[in-house]
Amino acid sequence: MENIKNSLEDRVNPRMLESAPMQRCKLGECHGACCIFGVWVDEREKEDILRNSALIAPHMPPELRDPAQWFAGFADDDEHAPSGRVVHTAVETQPDHYGGTACIFWRSDAKCALQVAGVENGLHPWRFKPFYCILHPLDLDDRGRITVDNTADVLAEEGSCLVPAASEIPLAITFADELKYLLGDRGYQALMEKVQESSTDMDKTPAVQIRPLTPADQRWLESFIIDHWGAKEVVVHKTIYLPALLPGFAAESDGEIAGVVTYQMRGEDCELVTLNCIDRCHGIGTLLLQSVEEIARQSGCRKCWLVTTNDNLDGLRFYQRRGYRLAAIHYGAVTAARAVKPAIPVVGEYGITLQDEVVLEKQLKPLQSAAV
Q1: Angle, nearest 10°, between helix axes 2-11 and 176-198?
Q2: CB of 159 within 8 A of CB of 36?
Q3: For residue 10, what is the enclosing H or E element?
Q4: Rounded to a whole number, what is the distance in angstroms from the first to the last CA of the chain?
Q5: What is the dihedral of CA 113, 115, 117, 121, to 10 degrees?
Q6: How far apart are CA 217 and CA 176, in angstroms?
Q7: Cα gap 273→328, rounded to integer Å
């Protein structure tokens, strides 16, 4: 058993030892909202699904029973996938589904055709389900360990698979089915023992305070920007910014800087220029983003927007989960910016060539007028 416990450190993020006031949604209420974008599938999983297409196809709409329609025609590298390569399920236009689109395996009864096929053929319900589909809304951290985002972030996500609960519930219980499947019965038992051992240490995360930046912050902020952006200047949409001179907010935890956001207002628009956190998955980025949105709203802005790069997959996910939508893609804009700021790398995150700018925006709800 001790060997199993030790292996948990490599498979499960300490976050999973915590409790949180949230619980799973009900399929009859959410109607499978999480299926909006489909899912990445390991190439071996794709091959397995296609080999068993005769068992799966009868449980799909007649017009979607051709296996040649089931997967997109491109693949990507994934260090956490067994084969190292993943493909994406096809996504269909579904006006009756949340967001207007859905994974090709989503059915109008909100069930997954892959799961229905497993049940109807006397197999485990998840026999044909892809790993990342089983995992959701859990996630993998940068070490490939099972985790889940900060509670406030998850509950704020549009179309979330999690909803508020009246009391704190151990995450290991909320996600018992997924964890038992992924870790095995003995692994899950070992996890629950660790949950009990650490219960007295729960909820000791240092409080985070958000405060506006002041002129006194300029010196350390310039160093902070250089550390996170490679220079004191940030070049975006053909504009050179000096974030240390911009308005913004700092997040502090135990007297230490935990994150910084800077912004620029023009008329009714508020541009988010930089957002950086020392540690992710603690809700600090969300708090900083909300602080900018609130002051923008108070200043009469109708929209918050930002520009990121094509390699910033984590950022694209972060902003979209907080209500931002893709507005434009400027092809080759980063390549042009590199002529102004040579420090911009050629290869960005996840080994992706850094070359395009992606614009995201969010419409702000106006402040409610006070009753007279």
Answers
A1: 110
A2: yes
A3: helix 2-11
A4: 67
A5: -170
A6: 46
A7: 17
Taking the C-alpha atoms of residue 75 and residue 69, their distance in angstroms, rounded to an integer, is: 15
Taking only the tens place, the pLDDT of each residue in 52-80 is 999 999 999 999 999 999 999 878 898 88
Give the integer Cα–Cα distance in Å for 41 and 148: 20
Judge whether 182 and 124 are in contact, CB under 8 Å: no
Global pTM exceeds 0.85: no
9: tokens are 């450190």
Structure tokens at 262: 């800077």
φ and ψ at residue 196, rounded to 5 degrees: -65, -40
Could you tell me which residues are beta bridge partners of residue 362?
304
233 φ/ψ angles, rounded to the nearest 5 degrees? -100, 145
E strands, 208-297, are: 208-212, 234-236, 239-241, 248-253, 256-266, 269-277
Which pLDDT tens digit goes with each residue over 264-275? 999 999 999 999
Provide the sign of the torsion angle of the four alpha carbons 147, 274, 272, 348, taken in this order.
Answer: negative
* Beta carbons of 210 and 282 less than 8 angstroms apart: no
Instruction: Tell me the C-alpha distance between 2 and 170, whole Å.
Output: 22
Question: Quick one: tokens of 206?
Answer: 């240092």
- What span, in angstroms and rounded, lies between the C-alpha atoms of 34 and 320? 13
Extract the residue ranges of the chain whose pLDDT is less than 50.
1-2, 4-5, 200-205, 369-372
